[in-house]
Structure formats: C-alpha cells, structure tokens
Design goal:
Length: 176
C-alpha cells in the first residue's frame, strides 16, 4: 500500500509540473527598444535642454561665489573686522543657496528626476503594454529584460529575443 501511494503522489506531481515544463520563455532588451522609439529621442532632447539650463544656472551661482571670495581676499586688509565677517556671511549664504539649488534640481527627488519620470512614464506604459501583448500572443510564461541591471542572464540565443516583436507592436520599423 505504501508503494502504490508513492506512485500516485509521483503521478500527481508529474501531472501538476507538466504545464510548468511547457512554458515558453524569452527575453527583450528594453534599452534597445527605447533607443529605437522616436518619442524617447524627443524626451532625451527635452531633458538635455533642461539639464543644460540648470547646470548653467548652477555654474553662474558658483562663479558668483568664486568672485565674491576673490574680492574678499583682495580687500581683506582694507575691511574692518565687522565688514569682513559680514562679507564672509554673504559668501556662506550664497554657498548655502547654491547647494540648496543643486539639491532641489539634481538631488534624489529633485526637479530633474521628477521631470524625467513624468516624461518617461507614458512611454514606459506604452512599451509595457506592447510587451504584455507580445507575451500573450506568443504564449510566453516568462520574459526577461536583458538590459535590466545586474542580471542572471549569461547567454541569450537570438531566437528567443522578442525585442523586434515589441517594436513591431509599437509600430516602429528597424532602420539600421
């Protein structure tokens, strides 16, 4: 009786595991897909323009601080102690303002990264929806992203690359 119970359990496991073994898998390269998408180039241009403007503003603040410091050193012997401290406080306030500007614009939750997320979100949603449609149409149980950070994908067979299918789904032609 014990042996027949083991056989029944083994058969149940094989029946349940059968669909898992039949799952198809593939991969995509989201970096490749993004670089092929014309909207991504527009977004990159907008972000580059914004960051260039903000970097110029930050450099202008830094230049003002440098000039104030140079002027203070040049006039140091002519200033009273109180005037010297007042100018030093002005420089420190300007340095603090510059640091706050850089943090507000380029910090972890800065305006630049918020703008980047705001501009990229609709495109990422569109790509994700196309990936989902391609996965369903091709009966894929698993789809990996080759471009995702440190990944466990060591080798990829081009036959399992679904990136072009996603581009087709998005209506983008390969213009190599």
């Amino acid at each position: 009786m014990d042996k027949s119970l083991k056989i029944v359990l083994l058969l149940l496991i094989l029946i349940q595991g059968g669909p898992l073994a039949a799952q198809k898998s593939g991969y995509i390269d989201t970096e490749y897909i993004l670089n092929k998408h014309p909207d991504y180039k527009v977004i990159q241009d907008v972000l580059l323009k914004l960051s260039t403007e903000w970097k110029k503003e930050a450099q202008s603040l830094d230049q003002e601080i440098k000039e104030m410091t140079t002027q203070l050193k040049a006039e140091e012997v002519l200033l009273t102690e109180e005037m010297y401290r007042q100018r030093l406080e002005e420089i420190k306030a300007k340095q603090k303002a510059s640091q706050e500007f850089n943090n507000r614009i380029f910090g972890i939750n800065g305006v630049y990264y918020q703008k980047q997320a705001e501009l990229l979100q609709p495109l990422q949603s569109k790509i994700y929806e196309a990936i989902e449609r391609v996965s369903r149409r091709n009966n894929l149980g698993l789809l990996f992203d080759k471009a995702a950070g440190p990944s466990a994908i060591i080798y990829t067979d081009p036959r399992h690359d679904y990136s072009e299918f996603v581009l087709d789904e998005l209506g983008i032609e390969d213009n190599n």
